Amino acid sequence: MERYLVRGAGKLSGILPVHGAKNAALPILAASLLCDGCELHNCPRLSDVDAACHILNHLGCSTRWQNETLLIGAGDSRDCSIPDHLMREMRSSIVFLGAMLAKYRQAKLTFPGGCELGPRPIDLHLSSLRKMGVCFEQQGDALYCSVPKELHGASIDLPFPSVGATENIMLAASLAKGDTVIRNAAREPEISDLAGFLNAAGGCVHMEKDGTVRIHGVEKLQHCTYSVIPDRIVGITYLCCAAITGGRITICNTEPNHMRAVFPIFEEMGCRLSIGSHEVSLQAPERLKAARSITTMPYPGFPTDALAPIMALSMVARGTSIFTENIFQNRYKQAWELCRMGAEIRTEGRIAVVRGVEHLHPASVICTDLRGGAALVIAALVTEGVTTIGEIRHIERGYENLPAVLNQAGACITVE
Length: 416
Ligand code: EPZ
Fold this sequence. Notes:
Layout: E1 4-7, E2 13-17, H1 22-31, E3 38-41, H2 47-58, E4 62-66, E5 69-73, H3 84-89, H4 96-104, E6 106-110, H5 123-130, E7 135-139, E8 142-146, E9 155-157, H6 163-174, E10 179-183, H7 189-200, E11 205-207, E12 213-216, E13 224-227, H8 232-245, E14 248-252, H9 263-268, E15 272-275, E16 280-283, E17 293-295, H10 307-314, E18 320-324, H11 335-339, E19 344-348, E20 351-355, E21 364-366, H12 370-380, E22 386-390, H13 393-396, H14 402-408, E23 412-415
Parallel strand pairs: 2-14, 3-13, 9-10, 17-18, 21-22
Antiparallel strand pairs: 1-22, 1-23, 3-5, 4-5, 6-8, 7-8, 10-12, 11-12, 14-16, 15-16, 18-20, 19-20
Helix pairs in contact: 1-2, 1-7, 4-6, 5-6, 6-7, 8-10, 8-12, 10-12
């Protein structure tokens, strides 16, 4: 199994371009099932995107890369099911459910198991789709979905602004009969990107300021060309690599407005930020100060996916930080591996307390999830010696060529 060998190598500096957003590309790839083909620019080359392409291929669509553009050819498979091995390849494959119901009015898939972040229920997906005329029958771990009468619009109030549930409702509603209103919908930028793609293909989706999404079902969607937004979590991760090493980097091809909830934390830790239209520069202090309290919330609050990268910074900051995770149960799974590097982290349920130490030491560690793996890389940049990081498949789900990108800025990472 491949591993990263990370040698602490001093301050990072340079200009790092940010690639397309994994969490925007995945629902858009599901939506591409409904179009007459599409060209997707700025699509990230990640293992999760490969998994989504495998599902599209299984459903009869062709997929072909042309540099950073993914060309998707319309297809029509009579097999409206996602085999278990493809569901297991990527837990968020559940986002294909709404698209399959819109296209086939039926679907068969297996329940998405839990993942590294804890159980991943889909009760909000199912209860919302039921209101649109979908019936579900569970047989073992298989879920049989059908539309006995018609797929129709509905008025849906989400008790929690679930990203996945919002996406599945939007996808099903795009070709349903009539209008759908989603109140308390997720407001992540990736949701707006899905709406942008659907509208580019001839759909009719309106995002309102108060988190309401209105969709008018149309007859069919056309071929379209679209460009995926930059990945805000990848951008934040790169900034963390500069912050922990006392360096100075500029991230470009990015959307600063998508990251604003994290900027005050960088500034509280002593970093100086310069924010442009599509770039952000960060100048780190010699040693970071601890940010007192970090609490994750749905967008536009502090993103849960940024918790682990920021936790890596707090491990060597002067002072103590208290983290409160409000989105996922197992967000602290990586803490034990970080402690093997000398971090002082105590967790209790949704709370983690991190007391900053002067130095971390090299260790042999393994990734337990995508963003936890990124935190291991960030921490390893300031250890004296070589840290070995295993199970890097987690990192490769969401970061394109991370070692090469960071080495350009002065890191010393080899893959073996
Ligand atoms: C999406 O996950 C992202 N994944 C996650 O990114 C991200 O952390 C999360 O949104 C929050 O922003 C993708 O977009 C592929 P949710 P998702 O539905 O859709 C509970 C990464 O690192 N819930 O908003 O699964 C759920 O258990 C990944 O890139 C229900 O209880 O997020 C969780 O505790 C990690 N019932 C919380 O809501 C449901 O029916 C948030 O889930 C649905 C969700």
